[in-house]
């Protein structure tokens, strides 16, 4: 730390992204990326003219892409906000709507407390139930910005829509953010509730089901006034935060919407097969509606499984939080990658005498 840093940030503990190692070729099951490339239309979307046009700023309103998303999700113009990945939107959300503090589950996406601390938003956390499901009653009526992913991370457990609605309805004077990063892998989206609740913001990303994590594109759907608030903050930081190439690729992805939905179904089928195989090997794991599994084995420590998998060329995610030290989060890859992972796991179980 230099002596020039604003004291406000001196104690800030930054988010730790999953490893992106370059030392060797791993089977990469640690950051919930898609194992499949984006739709063929996305791969073919960019022309030499697009590259030449990089001399020009991007459209700060993302007009063409917003129009497509408006149609796709059946919302009104003015109800879509675009940004540089959904992390960017979550950041704006804590900045914009956290005046009375924030509440989120105790076990969830570990970026939420970082955003809260960054913006001086006091937060409380609500413990999950014993079975890792969200404590809906505990999240209701807090009188604060309320944030949760559906499905939750890193558990993969989804909340039924009526329970999502119960949380939104119980916080009418504060924004409720439903982070739907993983919604396309089997959960119900809260988008239909937007007609009824002006305090609801649904945050989505191109990073997971649409296979475009590297393009950095996220969007939020909400009432016009909520979107205007987010726009105000975006235009006060970086109006061009979605670049020209990404805007174009984002449109091509909407045009081939069926492609990624089919890939999501493949990932869900691979997930179910992998879950079954892991259970047969003695692992315990909640039913996941996401593109990852949250797994523990009674005879192998979480850290050991992580380390030994890495030694054998498979990266999975282990978290430092002592409450979940026994667990690992495993992203669903291709069927071949999951077979390779399961073979490595079997070897480790033998080595550990499990
Ligand atoms: N929300 C959740 C729950 C996530 O796991 C992630 C991925 N790390 C994000 C949001 C952010 O994704 P992105 O910024 O790539 O859109």
Question: What does the secondary structure layout of this molecule look like, with pairings?
Answer:
Blueprint: E1 27-28, H1 40-43, H2 48-52, H3 63-73, E2 80-83, H4 86-97, E3 102-105, H5 112-118, E4 123-126, H6 136-139, E5 145-149, H7 161-169, E6 176-179, E7 200-205, E8 218-222, H8 224-234, H9 244-255, H10 257-280, E9 292-296, H11 302-311, E10 314-315, E11 327-331, H12 335-351
Parallel strand pairs: 1-10, 3-4, 3-5, 5-6, 6-7
Antiparallel strand pairs: 2-8, 7-8, 9-11
Helix pairs in contact: 3-9, 4-8, 10-12
- Main sheet: which strands, in order across? 2-8-7-6-5-3-4
How large is the radius of gyration? 21 Å
Q: What structural class do you assign from the helix and strand content?
A: alpha/beta
User: What amount of the residues lies in strands?
Assistant: 5-15%
Assign a percent range to the helix content.
25-40%
In the residues, how many domains can be counted?
2
What is the CATH C-level name of the largest domain?
Alpha Beta
